[in-house]
Amino acid sequence: MIATPDRTPLPRDFFDRPVLEVAPDLLGRVLIRTTPDGPIELRLTEVEAYDGPNDPGSHAYRGRTNRNGVMFGPPGHVYVYFTYGMWHCANLVCGPEGRASAVLLRAGEITEGAALARRRRLSARNDKELAKGPARLATALGVDRALDGTDACAAGETPLRILTGASVPTHQVRSGPRTGVSGDGGVHPWRFWVANDPTVSPYRAHTPRRRRS
DNA sequence: TCTAGGATATACT
DNA sequence: GTATATCCTAGAA
């Protein structure tokens, strides 16, 4: 065995599987965000599955729009959406192509480039909060709509890539209801996280907003 | 420690 | 007009 970390991207076949197989298998894998100031690496600790046509909680449930077009494309690409008027969230598209299923990257541990991440996340009180939540993760990595459609499996230069390497053992994977999803979409235990990991975001049930005055 | 409310793009009614 | 795959701050407890 070779002791050096494997810098090879995951093969596209990895994502060309049902999203419920891919999601737990992503836990523990490492994302590399290449920025002009240097790389930021993140180890995934929490994800959520969204299964296009059968899933009322999915952005793709009501068909293709300008925003969600990447979900309908080939697996292994990054779908980035802008929400609540302020935040970005990153997903990895799963197969088969056209099914429009994806995994939302909910939280992770910054394993390299923490100084760069802190600069983008000034409100974080400690390093465990740098990517504790989907919008925080995107902010820490500097992910926005400009990265929508990025191929995370590309071998060459790419702003965002996911590496091969060990996922966490099955006995450390936990699952439960998805966060912040309303209606029938909240019943599925399609949120997956690493047991006892301090970077996993706290569960919040869906709370409807009150009307503005 | 907890809760309420604000910020406001995008899609849908 | 209303809801949302969210986060942050202020003020109460």
Automatic annotation (TrEMBL):
CDD domains: AAG (cd00540)
Keywords from the UniProt entry: DNA damage, DNA repair, Glycosidase, Hydrolase
Its EC number(s): 3.2.2.-
Keyword Ligase annotated: no
Keyword Hydrolase annotated: yes
Transmembrane portions of the chain: none
GO molecular function: hydrolase activity, acting on glycosyl bonds
Residue ranges that the Swiss-Prot or TrEMBL entry lists as coiled coil: none
Pfam families recorded: Pur_DNA_glyco
Domain of life: Bacteria
Family matches, as PANTHER family: DNA-3-METHYLADENINE GLYCOSYLASE
Similarity comment: Belongs to the DNA glycosylase MPG family.
Name of the protein in its database record: Putative 3-methyladenine DNA glycosylase
Organism name: Streptomyces caeni
